[in-house]
Design a protein that fits this description.
This protein is mostly beta strands. The chain has a single domain, classed as Sandwich (Immunoglobulin-like). About 10% of the residues lie in helices and about 45% in strands. It contains 1 helix and 9 strands. Strands 3, 4, 6, 8 and 9 form a 5-stranded antiparallel sheet that branches. A hairpin with an 8-residue loop joins β1 and β2. The longest helix is centred in the first third of the chain and has 14 residues. The protein starts with a helix and ends with a strand.
């Protein structure tokens, strides 16, 4: 009976508020692959740092969904990581992928593209796994 109650409590905790109370284990880094020049197509590379003791699932993929902003043209707003990782022998990434976001700025200035980063992770120490949704702002500085 106690095991049933504990199992039910664990299920309810996981269902209540996605990632509530959990540390953000995947930290995005944003860097232009070259200086962003107004009127020319450029690319912002989103790479990731992972907190020690955690692993990121390859499936479902890491996804980044962006919202368009005035003054910036996005070729697309949804980005997903590839599921393949040649070094991986299980369901987790060994080398975290980078996402490439093509952008074109109408004029020089500073922009922030709001979005949501969604990924699935597992704790290596206790086997706990969860989905995490993180609000992000992709910075773009055009010359």
């Amino acid at each position: 009976m106690l095991n049933t109650i504990l199992g039910l409590v664990l299920a309810l905790v996981q269902l209540s508020g996605v990632g509530s109370g959990l540390p953000q284990v995947l930290i995005p880094n944003f860097k232009a692959s070259a200086p962003v020049v107004a009127g020319k197509k450029s690319e912002v590379v989103v790479s990731f740092n992972l907190l020690k003791g955690f692993a990121i699932n390859r499936t479902p993929p890491i996804s980044l969904n962006l919202t368009t902003v005035p003054g910036l043209k996005l070729e697309k707003t949804e980005f997903k990581s590839p599921a393949d990782d040649p070094k991986s022998k299980d369901e987790y990434y060994v080398d975290l992928p980078a996402l490439k976001v093509p952008v074109t700025a109408a004029k020089a200035g500073k922009y922030e593209i709001p979005g949501k980063l969604v990924y699935f992770f597992c704790s290596k120490s206790d086997g706990f796994c969860s989905r995490q949704v993180v609000d992000v702002k992709v910075p773009v500085t055009a010359q």
